[in-house]
Design a protein that fits this description.
By secondary structure, this protein is of the alpha+beta class. The radius of gyration is 21 Å and the shape is elongated. Strand 11 and strand 12 form a beta hairpin. 20% of the residues lie in helices and 34% in strands. The strands form 4 sheets. A 4-stranded antiparallel sheet has the order 11-12-7-13, covered by helices on one side. A 3-stranded antiparallel sheet has the order 1-6-5. It has a 3-stranded antiparallel sheet with strand order 2-3-4, covered by helices on one side. The relative contact order is 0.14. It contains 2 helices and 13 strands. The longest helix has 22 residues. The protein folds into 2 domains: 71 residues, Alpha-Beta Complex (Outer Surface Protein A, domain 3), CATH 3.90.930.12; 82 residues, Outer Surface Protein A, domain 3, CATH 3.90.930.
Length: 177
């Protein structure tokens, strides 16, 4: 039995509905939905959901833990939400919000405008920090990765856009001689 798959998902304070293979989770922050894989079943017991699989085939074992983790991410998203923080390192590098869009000045000859998806909110508390918030964990991570890809941190001075918890391993530069 999968260690993650056999743990129940707590659904206190949310609305859980199942319509055939489609599952919808509603909470105070919003609503998320997904469709279940073919062999995976979901059973609702009072305040928790149990995910089960029919047999121990490799495909079913993989989908068992994955489905439970996706359900847990949906429940956490609609109750607490997800955030990612990006830091901008470099002289003259900055970010600012223009309406809902993000304007990045990161060392190119032109500024970069980034329009986030509707489900995502961006905050810029300082000119060198970007906070990405949303209820869908996958989408928050995708937007953070996209913004980071505009100027990845380089290994010599550490300039670029990095995650707040990321550690840049710096290389030694050239030596004269």
């Amino acid at each position: 039995m999968s260690r993650i798959g056999k743990k129940p998902v707590n659904i206190k304070d949310i609305t859980f509905t199942q319509n055939g293979r489609n599952i919808t989770v509603k909470g105070k922050l919003g609503e998320l939905s997904m469709s279940l894989p073919n062999n995976i079943e979901v059973e609702v017991h009072e305040d928790e959901i149990a995910v089960t699989r029919p047999n121990d085939q490799k495909q079913n074992r993989a989908l068992h833990g994955l489905t439970r983790a996706l359900l847990q991410n949906m429940v956490t998203g609609v109750t607490e939400g997800y955030t990612k923080t990006l830091n901008i390192v470099g002289v003259g590098y900055k970010a600012e919000l223009k309406g809902k869009n993000l304007l990045l000045t990161i060392g190119y000859s032109h500024p970069i405008y980034f329009a986030p998806p509707d489900e995502i909110t961006l905050e810029v508390p300082t000119t060198t920090q970007i906070i990405i918030k949303g209820i869908d964990k996958e989408l928050v991570g995708l937007v953070a990765a996209k913004i980071r890809s505009f100027r990845k941190p380089e290994p010599y001075k550490g300039k670029g856009i990095k995650y707040s918890d990321e550690i840049i391993v710096k290389k030694a530069g050239k030596t004269a001689g």
